[in-house]
Amino acid sequence: MSLKTKVEAEMKTAMKARNKDRLRALKAIKALILLAETEKGAKQVLSEETEVKLLMKAAKQRKDSAQIYQEQGREDLETIERSELAVIEEFLPKMMSEEELTEKLQEIVARTGASSPKDMGKVMGIATKELAGKADNKTISLKVRALLNK
Predict the structure, then answer these.
(1) What is the CATH T-level fold of the domain 3-91, as seen in this structure?
(2) What is the rounded CA–CA span in Å between residue 13 and residue 18?
(3) pLDDT tens-place string over residues 28-70
(4) Domain 98-148: assigned CATH number
């Protein structure tokens, strides 16, 4: 079942339950999907990888916005962003644990033969593709840097 179909089904459920906050987040996800589908040169049906990238981007935007609102003391807006983030995260694949991520990155470092911080680009290129949707790129970058600086 495609992400669009799942979101539309959840929208119906949220409408019936009169859950405005959930519905707002679901509409935002659907809008992202529709924009991506109608982009020039885009395929009619989005691949699962593209859908995950859209959701990751939306989740990152919500996290950043919530952080800014928290710093500015705008708890009302921060609450809205965090509730939307929770809904978006429901559709994202399960994130890897710290141990799983470290283990996978060590495997990638060994496979590429990387030995110094100069090889970070080589490792990051492979890691971001293989771990898309399973780990945040910022976290991946920090872990790779730590592994290569040993």
Answers:
(1) Hypothetical Protein Yqey; Chain: A; domain1 (1.10.1510)
(2) 8
(3) 999 988 888 888 776 677 777 788 888 888 988 999 999 999 9
(4) 1.10.10.410
